[in-house]
Specification:
With 200 residues, the protein is mostly helical. It contains six helices and two strands. A two-stranded antiparallel sheet has the order 1-2.
Length: 200
Amino acid sequence: MLKCNAVLKIAQIKLSIAENLLAPLMLLVTRLYIGNVFWKSGKTKLDGGPEQTEQLFEWEYIPNWEANSTKSFFGIEINFPVPSVEFAATSATYLEIILPVLLFIGLFGRGAAFLLFGMALTIEIFVYPGVTEHIYWMLLLGLLVVFGPGKFSIDYFIRRKTLADIPPFFKVFPAQAPSCPTGQKSDKAVRKEETKEKDQ
């Protein structure tokens, strides 16, 4: 009995460390890593100035987009619209600066990750198709969309203050701590014995 309780206690401690420290830490590392990828890209565009950035989009990005704008789905060809150079250059620059900062501090983390996921998907489909690195970006951003920015974020503290009294939406089974077998008889067995005693 004591040995069983000790094993359960150790397992509980390990799970607590994994859920309350390691998982939030990994989400923080993921935010910093993927945010830095887009931040460096946006910083390069910002440092180059609007003219150089628009030139890059005009000579490389938009021609690639035009070349990949027609996609076939189930035998049906769909022509996707191609944005203007000015709009694409300006929006990409500011999104790649603002959204990574939101990821760094963990503010509107899911929304920022979702928008960056959309950017990565757009790059993969229209600008540079078939690049494995884009898949890794989308996987990491998908994790942030699903699990959120974690405990080391502003979102977490806001949620604790504003949603503390709201019960979880998905709560099928009540949380119960594991327990060791105590050797006690089940209610069914007790009732069966009581019935036998009455019959005697």
